[in-house]
Amino acid sequence: MKILSLVENASIAREADEICGIAETRKARLEKLKSGLKTTLDGKVFCCISSDKNLIYKVNGKYHWYLKYSLQKEWIRREIAGAEAIKATLGDFEGYRHARAVRASLTDRYTLYSAVEGKSFNRSFLSGCLTGLAASNRTSLPAMENLGRCLGRLHTYRDPAGLRVLSPDTLSYLRTYLADIKDPDLLVENIANWVNEQDDSCGVTAWIHGNIKSEDILMAGSKACFIDLGTCGAGVPYEDLTNLCTYMMLFRTVPLFPWRIARHAMSAFLRGYRAESPLNEECLYNYITRGICRYYIKNAVLHSGMASVSGMPVLNSRLERLVRQLLQEHYEAAFDSVRF
């Protein structure tokens, strides 16, 4: 078992040791729990919150914890490497909210994190946009800029083990989705032609999260915290940026959404990132185009019904217009005053 925390006080270290002992000796008992069920072991309440690919438990004792058993040892190796990357790049950064205790065992294939209080990125972004411009300028924009700085710092890590990122890239997903379309219309054909002209990467490599989604970021006030590091490794940094920028860009297609505020938030995020890592605008334009096209094919073409983002309906005509603007490289119109 490895201790990956920055600093642990005696009380939280004692409880972490106790839970690790349970994780290593009572795994068979815990594996019997189905999602939503609870059991109490040595005074700690274990509630199974996921039993799909991994077994994940919320643990309540004196402190609150998350315990995850991974099916594959390689995922634990990545979790350990990711925690070490965060320590190396964000250990002394005031804008990052570290878990108070982090443990991992490659042998027993588990990770243990003390809970970090905060909102998921999507909730933080939405609340910032919906509170009005003045309030957003005071609270949301500094948080978004700080998130960009955290991600930019993480991308500066150089892993001594040379691990490669595990998750497929956006272009691979897009090609898979396109292959499932039996009767493509003109816009889908244009996307397919554009994809066929693309290289697999922009020639830039960095340490990346690899599968970052809005729920993989916690925002505690203006501080950020990255979670679920099981796919991290060396890859193209624009993959991480694409996932978050695509999410924000999609609100251009939501009727009545305050895009004016959202574009300020996206600009602040990119400004923070650029302060810590290099950013090539042409590469980012290209990768966001991949992200928007992937969303369009998956959610508006392959699936019936109205597409949505964070539960808000996406207007298909706006989404199609955004796709066309990006494919035609009309970036000024597509990004509508987002500052890169």
Low-pLDDT runs of 5+ residues are none
Helix content: 40-55%
Span of the ends, CA to CA: 43 Å
Question: Class by helix and strand content?
Answer: alpha+beta
Sequence of strands across the biggest β-sheet: 1-6-7-5-4-3-2
The percent range for strand residues is 15-25%
Number of strands: 14
Tell me about the largest β-sheet.
Answer: 7 strands, antiparallel
The Rg value, from CA coordinates, equals 21 Å
Specify the CATH class of the largest domain.
Alpha Beta
SSE order, as H and E? EHHEEEEHEEEHHHHEEEEHHHEEHH
Give the overall pLDDT as a whole number.
93
Identify the CATH homologous superfamily of the largest domain: Aminoglycoside phosphotransferase (APH), C-terminal lobe
How many independent structural domains? 2
